[in-house]
Each structure stands twice: as structure tokens, then as C-alpha cells.
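It is worth pausing here to work through a concrete case rather than discussing structure prediction in the abstract. The textbook approach is simple: state the sequence, then state the predicted structure, then interpret. We follow exactly that order.
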Amino acid sequence: MTEAGTAASSAATTLPEPVRQRVLTLAAQALGQLPATDVPAPLRRFASFAPAKRAKLSASVLGPILETDEHFRRLTAFQVRREHAELGDAVAEGIPVPMADPVEVAALAYLLRPDEWEQRIAAAAQLPVETPRADDEAISRLSDQLDQARTETRQVRERLREQVNELKAENVTLRRKLNEARQRITGLQSDLELRTTEAETADQRVDAARSEVEREVRRLRARITELEAVEHAARRTAGQERELASTRTRLLLDTVIEAASGLRRELALPPGGELRPADTVAGTEPTAAPVGRTAPEDDPALFDELLALPQVHLIIDGYNVTKTAWPTSPLHSQRQRLVTALGALVAQRRIEVTVVFDGAELSGPVQLNPPRGVRVRFSPAGVIADEVIRQLVRAEPPGRPIVVVSTDREVAESVGKLGARSLSATSLISRIARA
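Step two, the predicted structure:
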């Protein structure tokens, strides 16, 4: 620590109480005027307070910082000297001011640190301690109020200065916009005059065009009247021609019918539908065998006989057939090969075909392109394909031929009870291979 710092610290610790209080009051007033970057961190929360409140609440922190922070003390002294210009200049230059309050002079000397500032503090320390009077308290309050009023006035003045600057900038902007608006208005007026002239010219053209259109409408109406008369005459002529053609056709048909009747009477032909020439040939008629009962279930001939039944519905247990025919192929390949082969079968036989696959085998959406005439169904969640096959059989009307292809014995027995005929998967596979 320097000798000046040591002396300052020693004097500060021995400041008379009135001088110390005045130093804190002056420093608190200056604190509110300093930039935030120059205020030590412990004092920043007091900077926005009112001067009296700031001096009261920051006293315990402000005093030690003034003793130890030389830079902050100098900034405070500079601000105090601005606020008390006359007395502050006199104290800073060492000029005696006999009429000034010794306590005020000592407080300024402590902050400004002119030559012999310690003697001024010592002189203030030798003053008798007087009991504060009511007038002194009133003066102190008025002084605080005056300081607060000065601070508020300065703040208001700064705000007004900022508002004036903003208004000036706004005035410049408004003047610029006004000039631009005037230029636009001038341009719009010129454009309006031009467009008015063009509109008048357009009105004249419209009037001329309207007259031309009216003449054309009158001409077209006359032409329409002429064409309607021609159409009426053409319709009357076409009607007469159709009536004449119908009369000719009716006469020709009557002539043909009468000629055929005369020929039948001349040849003495019997009425048709009772006896055919082939019925006159003697022979033994065979006994009809029940369809699909005399051949094994995997016989392709039996499969063809069942498909030849009128309005037959072929229902196929999909995976039962594909896993028998192509067990090593992926499921999507099995499905596509089966429906493709069935498409060829439908094209040959013109039959109704429904293929049922078990939905439990699916891992996601199915991409399948069945050919025309092949219906593909997947069993819903929680339902096996066998149950869907039984539902399809039950949905058909009694008496319709139904053929179910499945090697599953339980499926064969259940559909047999419902009136359907079952075939093994090998019969369909053989038929597909033969095709």
C-alpha cells in the first residue's frame, strides 16, 4: 500500500461521525449518477434506490468500499464536485471558505483529497458536538428532498431530451414519407389521366363492337330460323321414310312366315320337341354314375368332373396347397404362384374361385396381384383360415355345387357336413401341373 493510501485509510477510520454521515450521503447521491459499469458489484443493487433510501441502506457497504477502492472514490469525487461546483472547486483548490459548513468542507476534502485535506478533517473533528435541532432536521430533510428533486429533474430532462431526439428523427422520417407520398400522388394523377383517356377510347370501341354484335345476332337469328325450317322439313321426310321402310319390312316378314307355314303343310312335318331322328336308333342306355364318387380324391379327372358342374364354387385352403407344392419357397412367392396358376384355370373353365390364406402368417401389409376372377381373402386377427372357409360354405345357398381343396381332414369333415365336396391339395396341384 502507498503512503497516500495509508494516510487515507488512517484518516477514514478516524472520521468524525458528522463528517462520515455527510460523506456517505454525498457518495450515495453520486452513486445514482454513475454508469453501471463503474459501480462496484456490491453497490449495484442500491443504485436504483431513492437518494435517502440509498444512503441509509448502503452505508454499511459504501463506507468500506470508499476506504479501499481508490478508483471508485475518484469517480465519486468527480460526480460530487459536479453537483457542488462552487464549494467543490474551492475545496479542491485549497481556497478557504469561512462561511461554509466545516462538516461539508471536511466531507468534500475527504472525497476530493486536495492538499492538507487531513487538516480540514481534523478541524471538523474539533467542532463541539451540538444537539440536533428541529430546524437542522428540517433542513436535512429539505436538503434530501432537494437532492432527490434535482436527481428526478435531471432524469426527466434526459428522458425529454431522448424524446425530443426521437421526435426529430420521426419528423425527418415523416417528411421523407410525405415527399414520397406526394411523388406517388403526382404519378398516380398522371396515370389516372392516361387511364381515363384510355377508358374513353375503350368505351367508344365497346359501343362499336356492341353494334357489330347486335347486327351479327340478328343475322344468326335469321339463319337459325331458316335452319329450323329445314330441320322440320327433314324430320317430316325422315318420318315418312321410316314409316315406308317399316311397312316394307312388315310385308317381307309376313311373306316369309306365310311361305314357311305353307312349306311345313306341304311336307307334312310334325311339331318339333318330341322326337328326334337319333331317338329312332335301337340300343341300350348306360346307367349314370354319381359325379365325383367313383374316382379317388387326387384324380385329376375327378377334379375336372367337379369343375364341370354348373355354377360350381371352388374354395382353396391357400397355405395348405402352397406348402405342399412349393415348401421351400418364401410365402409371398407361394401366394403369387398359386393365384397366377388359378388365373389360367379360371380363364379355361369360367368358374368362381376363392383362395383363403391364414392371416397369422403375415408380418405386415400384403402386396399381391391376383388375376381377374380369382378372389383372395386373409383370415382376420384371431381367426384361422379353416373358420373362414366354413363361413364361405355356409354363405352359399343350398344346392349350389361347392368344392373345397384342403388336405386338412378336420376341414374336409366339417365342410362335408355342410354339403360341400372336399378334394386333396394334390388333386389341384396335379391339375395345375397338367395345365
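Step three, interpretation. The chain has three domains: 17-125, 155-268, 298-433. Residues 134-267 form the longest helix (134 residues).
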